[in-house]
Amino acid sequence: MAERSTAAVDVADNSGKQPLTAKAGQSTSDGVVKNPELDTDSAEAQGTSGTEATETISAPLELHSGHKLARRYRLEECVTRLDGFSSWRAVDEKLRRAVGVHILPAKHPRARAVLAAARAAALLGDPRFVQVLDAVEENDFVYVVHEWLPDATELTALLATGPLEPHDAYQMVSQIASAMAAAHRDGLSHLRLNPNAVLRTSAGQWRIRGLAVNAALRGITSDTPQRTDTEAIGALLYAALTQRWPYESDAYGLTGLPKDVGLVAPDQVRAGVHRGLSELAMRALVNDGATASRHESPCTTPEELVKAIGEMPRIRPPEPAFTAPPEYQRTTYQQGTYGRPAAGPGVTQPLAPPPPPLQSRTGKALKWAVSALLIAALGLGSWQLAEALMGRGEKQKDTDNTQTQDSGDKNTNKANPKPIKIEGAQEFVAKGDAQHPGDVDKTYDGTTSTYWRTKSFNEGPSIASYKIGVGIMYDLGSAQKFDTATIGLRYGGDHTTVELYAADSLTPPSLDSMNRIGNVTTSGTTATIKPDKPVKTRYVLVWLTAVPMSGYDAASYSQSGYKQAITEVGFTG
Question: For the domain that residue 463 is a member of, what is the CATH number?
Answer without folding.
Answer: 2.60.120.260
